[in-house]
Amino acid sequence: MRMSKLYMPTLREVPSDAEIISHKLLLRAGLIRKLVSGVYSYLPLGKRVLSKIEKIVREEMDAIGSQEVLMSAIQPAEVWKESGRWSAYGPEMFRLHDRHEREFCLGPTHEEIFTTTVRDEVNSYKQLPLSLYQIQTKYRDEKRPRFGVIRSREFIMKDAYTFDRDPEAMKEAYFEMWKAYEKTFDRLKVRYKVVEGDSGAMGGSDSHEFTAMAESGESNIIYCNDCDYAATDEKASTVLVMKDQDIELKEMEKVLTPNIGTIEDLESFFSTTAESFAKTLLLTVNGETVAVMIPGHRELNLIKLLKIIDAAEHEIEMADAQTVREVTGAEVGFAGPIGLKKDIKLYVDKRVTEMKNFVVGANETDFHYKNVNYARDFEGIVVEDLVLAQEGDLCPKCGAKLHTDRGIEVGNIFQLGTKYSDALGLTYLDKDGKSQKVWMGSHGIGVSRTMAAIIEQNYDEKGIIWPLVVAPYHIIITVVNSKQEVQSELGEKLYRELSAKGYEVLLDDRDERAGVKFNDAELIGIPIRINVGRRAGEEIVEFALRREEQKHEISISEIEEKIKAEFKAQGL
Ligand code: ATP
Ligand code: MG
Predict the structure, then answer these.
(1) DSSP 481-522
(2) Is this model's pTM higher than 0.90 or not?
(3) Which residue's CA lies nearest to atom 25 of ligand 1?
(4) What is the pLDDT of residue 203?
(5) Closest ligand 1 atom to the C-alpha of 202?
């Protein structure tokens, strides 16, 4: 491709809503453009990268015998009502009506569609196992679309669905998918960790997330260096060692704590640490207020709470000041378990029941109780674990200290069990003619998100550094001074020859200053660079790799050998 013809609108300035590097570089290098919040267009370079990622995903799916299909983005409401997710999915679902007032959505995912499609055709054990996938556009009206194509409202996902005769076969399909994902992300040169995930709204029993490691990522992961334990912070179960406790129960006392609302204020007022307090958090779930108690030095794990109360994420929020006043009779900051409005359900993290002589809010503005003890002074619904895991917690598997890291969820695999086959009536007849449930799995890869994740792991101050495998072009030939005939002629010759050999080559034949050309080459991150400059007459060019600083002057006869060496170095 000649750059004089390439549609590559680069930008000097980055729009202010681009917070992270991949978003900035995708815009600056002219790979994507925003249409509206969370909706992007892919320009030629972006489309090429996307297609390359898709190709690898497709090859690895095909390699495990999954068959490609393509389902509609428009989905009728009926199947979602049948599965119960029409309401459960909440405001993240884009909904629409046709001219006959029939309801539809733009598919955020396709469990319902695949299950009903298969239900209508599959009835015998002979048709199982079955694995189908698609690479298709998904729609989710995210609460906070951000980070460009990482959390967008329209995005490309590979979603695969597996159908098996029994739970063992479902698990086998799951591990096969796991292996295929490892191959996919290895080939894409993504540095990732596989962590236990929460199955959330998807339902089912077991799930793992493939997390591309990046500081900018929204996933917090917890892992152990001594064993293989790794999970998202939401999924991780916490083992808390509470500090040494007094043995004797002291008498409860009401204490005047004027203008003291935060844990930090309380720590200095009572000259103790947050571990000596129990926080009472008030939340509104579908209009009803619930209270949750956890040790004062820890954060609430909302996902664990949602499971206990059987609610979806969009159905819960922190109670507003008005509600707090109504249920506690006090201003915000003084909620506690004693004297809460009668019908409020109080969920108590088990560790609180093990604490002794702790401090809680008194449900009265400017007052706290000290020397409070569970059972003697109040009771609630005790829950095993409601706190978010954090750095330094103990591994639930081996007891070593856990570590934390951040990343971007690029893929996940779910064992769905029979959730959807039960709800939508997908069964098969076994060898004896008996009706059996189909065991399912659902497995996604964020194709467009992966493109951004690769940039998050491969860039420098000058721009993107694409790995060869997904680079929009392998090689860029920069004619340093296009006005010099000998330079442009050699550039043309190399362009023709290398293209004929099957390499994907960009020829910068633009009538621009050398500095502009070099900057663009670095910004768009083409892995192999050949600069045709003042020694063109001697058939000597400058050869450089985007991932390295050094440039080498070489004879054109050595070029191919150098290119091959780089392909080899990158495992191609
Ligand atoms: P997240 O927790 O980041 O919202 P999710 O758990 O909702 O992700 P899934 O429903 O499992 O995601 O979707 C499968 C894959 O699709 C994810 O692993 C992710 O890579 C990608 N994905 C999900 N939501 C988005 C989005 N809004 N924009 C881009 N990619 C997304
Ligand atoms: Mg999501």
Answers:
(1) -TTSHHHHHHHHHHHHHHHHTT--EEEE--SS-HHHHHHHHH
(2) yes
(3) 151
(4) 55
(5) 10
